[in-house]
Design brief:
Elements lengths: L16 H10 L4 H17 L2 H28 L6 H5 L4 H9 L8 H4 L1 H6 L3 H31 L5 H11 L7 H25 L3 H14 L5 H14 L4 H30 L6
Helix pairs in contact: 2-10, 3-5, 3-8, 3-9, 3-12, 5-11, 8-12, 9-12, 10-11, 10-13, 12-13
Length: about 280
């Protein structure tokens, strides 16, 4: 009598354990996960010694000056065509790439990173720690950009053509009134905060995310208190502005705008969308 063949095993229509792991690896992190990454980064920054924050902030101020230099290099070498500004604005991303990928302290990044821990634990102690970091990093950034402006203006490091190109790039600030400075600063602060929020899920695309978001700042004519301070210093040295105008015409309205855009808008909205899940 012939042996009966055993029935073929049913094909499992689900996914295997290895495929489950693949799904987890390929899935974008949930919003609460991104929030937690950025919040922990803010807590780590607030724990750093004042000297570390200071020198990292000075380095960021020096590095961000390369945004204006790279933009001037493109501007001076491109033909005079309608598309020239759009291409030259790509140079603006260079300084931000240097600062962010090198993990240097940039004030506008901290408008979201250190605010999220404060929103979770709103107390006088946390507010003090946030204010301490903001004061140290902003002052260090502005000292760094001042040193860079003096170096570029009073040493033979650049050709006359390149230096004139940097001043030409900086003169776009002269066209802005106080209201435009402030509201353009809101847009810039929002874009930088959005960039910080996107980086944890960007993985290998960090370079592209940073480039695109900062390119939008330049192409949109938005104002950034740190990168713009280098431009403002150049305008003073070139004789277009007085020193008091750097503070009243540029820094105060742009600083307020960056804080509103990064903190009051993006950081608060980011916290609001996860507060019931954390």
């Amino acid at each position: 009598m012939a042996k009966r063949k055993s029935p073929a095993p049913k094909k499992d229509r689900g996914i295997s354990d290895s495929e489950v792991r693949d799904v987890e690896e390929m899935s974008a992190p949930r919003t609460p996960v991104i929030y937690e990454v950025v919040r922990r980064l803010g807590e780590e920054e607030m724990e750093r010694p004042a000297s570390s924050l200071w020198w990292s902030g000075v380095a960021a101020g020096l590095s961000i000056s390369f945004s204006v230099l790279a933009e001037a290099i493109l501007l001076t070498h491109l033909p005079d065509a309608p598309w020239r500004p759009l291409v030259s604005h790509l140079g603006y991303s260079v300084g931000f790439l240097m600062v962010i990928l090198a993990r240097q302290q940039l004030f506008t990044e901290s408008t979201i990173t250190v605010v999220l821990p404060v929103l979770k634990d709103l107390s006088p102690g946390m507010l003090w720690r946030m204010g301490r970091l903001w004061a140290i990093v902003l002052a260090a950034n502005l000292v760094g950009t001042l040193l860079a402006a003096l170096f570029c203006s009073f040493t033979p490091v650049l050709t006359h053509e390149l230096y004139d190109g940097m001043v030409e790039v900086s003169r776009k600030l002269i066209e802005l009134d106080l209201a435009r400075m402030f509201f353009a600063g809101i847009s810039s602060g929002f874009l930088i905060a959005a960039m910080v929020w996107m980086i944890p899920s960007a993985e290998s695309a960090k370079f592209i995310v940073i480039t695109l978001m900062t390119y939008l700042i330049a192409a949109g004519g938005f104002t950034h208190v740190v990168a713009g301070s280098f431009e403002a210093y150049l305008l003073v040295i070139a004789g277009d502005w007085a020193w008091w105008q750097v503070l009243t015409t540029f820094m105060l309205p742009v600083l307020a705008g960056n804080i509103v855009g990064g903190t009051a808008l993006f950081a608060v909205l980011s916290y609001a969308q996860v507060k019931d899940e954390i």
